[in-house]
């Protein structure tokens, strides 16, 4: 394993177990691969890397009506009937300043675009709070009235969230033999909607981790996550040569290092001496045959003859 | 060459509705269909299975004993006679089963609901639906035609999902029967949030993020055939279903044929 893949695996472990300081972890999912399995995986990693009762886990749900078994140690709050102000007040009242707080919001699509930045800003008031939230990218975003009034300069929820988030975990289905691109394109069509087999895998997912440092540097690593044995495998991109050697030589010097197409044809037509020799192959059954040419110096003495 | 008749199973262990697992987990299922692939036949079999854990499509699952679960059927597009007649053909007299309840929102719907007033929909659910569902013994709920409210009134997809959430918490299993014709939710040419297509598309995608199981009935993509009515696809939903004893959803695709006498044949695809 190269040092880069090693460090990416360490970074993922640190992010998923809340060891890496990150105020907003954004999980991007689709109807083809939901975030439920990843959230359980994150909870598993937090539980195994932190002593009991050192993380205050709170689940605020706009969507799910009950906790899944993988998140059973969260405190559940159904906020689907509350207004945004009430949700913020409820979240603030559940924060314990003496320990690390994990605020899980499922899902942020239910917070209106205009309230989004205020909503997140009001929750993240201290360093020991991490918001973990899901955003469904399958839901199309439409220009709303507020955006129209702003003459189209106000960003979409997706742009806002991906800009604010310090860590982005994009989930893709682990289906190596299917063409995701095709499915994404035909998502809106009836034939794939509601009848896609082989998705929402509970054993394997593909994960794209984007981590933004305080310095402004952003790193992106893809992984395959095995949810059964809780292991992550960095996906190493196969280095495919995009340029030929000829292309690399271009523009390096003031003189020409490459050959033109015409030169290549002429070069291929040159008849090399060993081609002619190969025509006689087999005639002498493997013996060394020397054929004299007109300028050869013939010596009658055999240099290998035994002198005695 | 004769085609082999196959059996209908949604879960491992030959289960259709996993009654035992519903004591521990909630099951949310969508049954989506388009024009030409009406789901009535499937819903009839599912009601039978919800009540008695039997299914006449399968061998060895035809003996009815006691009622396993209460069933509430809410319809905005049919009255009770549709399903009473369908179930009678399967040998089930719905009228004589006290555990079965039909909530008819179809008759007089628009005398109770004012299209411009979403509050009238809240009143409808508060007076006609929620009080009639037992809170002590959670039933299996079927609801069909909910999209009618979305397409004909000013209600938003999120408001409608609020009612679905309440039904989810009142039930041990919820079946949402909904059309998925592309004309209803095609948003490729529309970019206004208030359009009904957008609201329905938004509703469908949000529902798909809540389901455990999706059942889709579609016509053959190759055209009409005399011996095949359509395809039946069973696929996992977004929320993993945590059943007892490692119960898993069986992702499968069937071809099905509904004959004139309403008998149904299933074939593995």
UniProtKB/TrEMBL annotation, chain A:
One of its GO terms (biological process) is tRNA wobble uridine modification. It is found in: Cytoplasm; Nucleus. The keyword Ribonucleoprotein does not apply. Pathway: tRNA modification; 5-methoxycarbonylmethyl-2-thiouridine-tRNA biosynthesis. Keywords: Cytoplasm, Nucleus, tRNA processing. This is Elongator complex protein 5. It comes from Wickerhamomyces pijperi. One of its GO terms (molecular function) is tRNA binding. Pfam families: Elong_Iki1 (PF10483). Belongs to the ELP5 family. Its main location: cytoplasm. It comes from the Eukaryota. The keyword Heme does not apply. GO terms for cellular component: cytosol; elongator holoenzyme complex; nucleus.
Automatic annotation (TrEMBL), chain B:
Pathway: tRNA modification; 5-methoxycarbonylmethyl-2-thiouridine-tRNA biosynthesis. One of its GO terms (biological process) is tRNA wobble uridine modification. Signal peptide: none annotated. GO terms for cellular component: elongator holoenzyme complex. It comes from the Eukaryota. Transmembrane segments: none annotated. PANTHER family: ELONGATOR COMPLEX PROTEIN 6. Belongs to the ELP6 family. This is Elongator complex protein 6. It comes from Wickerhamomyces pijperi.
């Amino acid at each position: 394993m190269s040092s880069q893949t090693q460090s990416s695996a360490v970074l993922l472990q640190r992010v998923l177990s809340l060891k890496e300081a990150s105020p907003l972890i954004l999980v991007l999912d689709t109807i083809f691969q939901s975030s439920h399995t990843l959230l359980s995986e994150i909870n598993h990693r937090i539980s195994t890397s932190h002593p009991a009762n050192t993380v205050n886990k709170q689940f605020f749900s706009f969507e799910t009506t009950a906790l899944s078994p993988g998140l059973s140690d969260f405190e559940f709050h159904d906020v689907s009937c509350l207004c945004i102000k009430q949700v913020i007040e409820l979240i603030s009242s559940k924060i314990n300043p003496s320990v690390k707080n994990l605020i899980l919001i499922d899902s942020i699509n239910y917070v209106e675009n205009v309230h989004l930045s205020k909503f997140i800003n009001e929750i993240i008031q201290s360093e020991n709070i991490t918001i973990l939230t899901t955003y469904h990218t399958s839901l199309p975003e439409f220009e709303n009235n507020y955006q129209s009034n702003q003459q189209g300069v106000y960003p979409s929820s997706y742009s806002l969230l991906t800009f604010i988030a310090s860590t982005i975990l994009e989930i893709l289905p682990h289906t190596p033999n299917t063409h995701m691109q095709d499915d994404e394109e035909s998502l809106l069509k009836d034939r794939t909607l509601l009848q896609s087999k082989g998705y929402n895998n509970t054993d394997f997912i593909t994960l794209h981790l984007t981590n933004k440092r305080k310095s402004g540097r952003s790193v992106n690593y893809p992984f395959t996550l095995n949810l059964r044995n809780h292991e992550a495998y960095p996906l190493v991109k196969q280095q495919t040569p995009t340029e030929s050697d000829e292309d690399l030589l271009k523009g390096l010097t003031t003189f020409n290092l490459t050959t033109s197409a015409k030169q290549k044809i002429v070069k291929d037509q040159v008849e090399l001496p060993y081609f002619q020799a190969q025509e006689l192959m087999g005639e002498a059954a493997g013996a060394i045959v020397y054929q004299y040419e007109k300028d050869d110096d013939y010596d009658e003495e055999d240099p290998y003859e035994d002198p005695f | 060459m004769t085609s082999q008749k196959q059996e209908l199973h949604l879960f491992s262990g030959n289960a259709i509705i996993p009654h035992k697992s519903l004591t521990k987990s909630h099951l949310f299922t969508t049954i989506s269909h388009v024009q030409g692939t009406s789901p009535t036949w499937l819903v009839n079999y599912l009601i039978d299975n919800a009540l008695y854990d039997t299914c006449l499509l399968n061998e060895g699952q035809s003996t009815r004993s006691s009622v396993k679960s209460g069933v509430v059927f809410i319809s905005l597009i049919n009255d009770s006679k549709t399903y009473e007649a369908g179930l009678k053909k399967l040998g089930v007299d719905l009228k004589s089963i006290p555990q079965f309840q039909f909530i008819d929102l179809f008759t007089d719907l628009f005398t109770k609901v004012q299209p411009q007033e979403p509050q009238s929909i809240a009143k409808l659910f508060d007076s006609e639906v929620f009080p009639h569902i037992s809170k002590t013994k959670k039933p299996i709920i079927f609801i069909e035609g909910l999209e009618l409210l979305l397409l004909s009134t000013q209600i938003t997809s999120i408001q409608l999902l609020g009612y679905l959430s309440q039904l989810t918490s009142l039930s041990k299993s919820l079946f949402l029967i909904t059309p998925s014709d592309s004309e209803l939710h095609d948003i490729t040419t529309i970019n206004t949030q208030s359009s009904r297509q957008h609201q329905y598309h938004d509703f469908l995608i949000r529902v798909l993020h809540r389901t455990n199981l999706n059942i889709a009935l579609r016509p053959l993509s190759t055209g009409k055939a005399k011996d095949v009515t359509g395809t039946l696809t069973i696929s996992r939903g977004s929320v993993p279903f945590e059943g007892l004893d490692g119960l898993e959803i069986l992702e499968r695709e069937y071809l099905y044929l509904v004959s004139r006498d309403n008998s149904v044949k299933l074939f593995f695809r």
